[in-house]
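Ops channel
N.P.: pipeline sanity check, posting one input/output pair.
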């Protein structure tokens, strides 16, 4: 008998939050960077992108979206790739701790 492979069903993202994003209309290169970008230029670009994110009314929704997918590249919700990886691990640890304490 053949086995049916099931994929984890992710809820379809709601894109409505993007209408209110502070980055709407900005150059995408500011948030994703050009190929071959050197570190000093990347640091400056990321600071500019994060400044826009810092004033964004939908920053939390943007970050939650990027963490749930996961988006591997760019600045989302004010965090770059490495910062999102750290946040993802932090949230997983917090969820695991909550699950353990709920059982105990």
């Amino acid at each position: 008998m053949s086995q049916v492979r099931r994929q984890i069903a992710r809820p379809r993202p709601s894109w409505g939050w993007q209408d209110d994003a502070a980055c709407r209309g900005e150059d995408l290169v500011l948030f994703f960077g050009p190929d071959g970008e050197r570190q000093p230029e990347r640091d400056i670009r990321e600071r500019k992108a994060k400044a826009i994110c810092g004033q964004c009314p939908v920053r939390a929704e943007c970050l939650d979206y990027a963490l749930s997918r996961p988006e591997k590249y760019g600045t989302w919700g004010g965090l770059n790739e490495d910062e999102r990886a750290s946040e993802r691990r932090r949230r997983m640890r917090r969820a695991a701790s909550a699950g353990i304490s709920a059982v105990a």
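N.P.: looks fine end to end. The longest helix spans residues 81-103.
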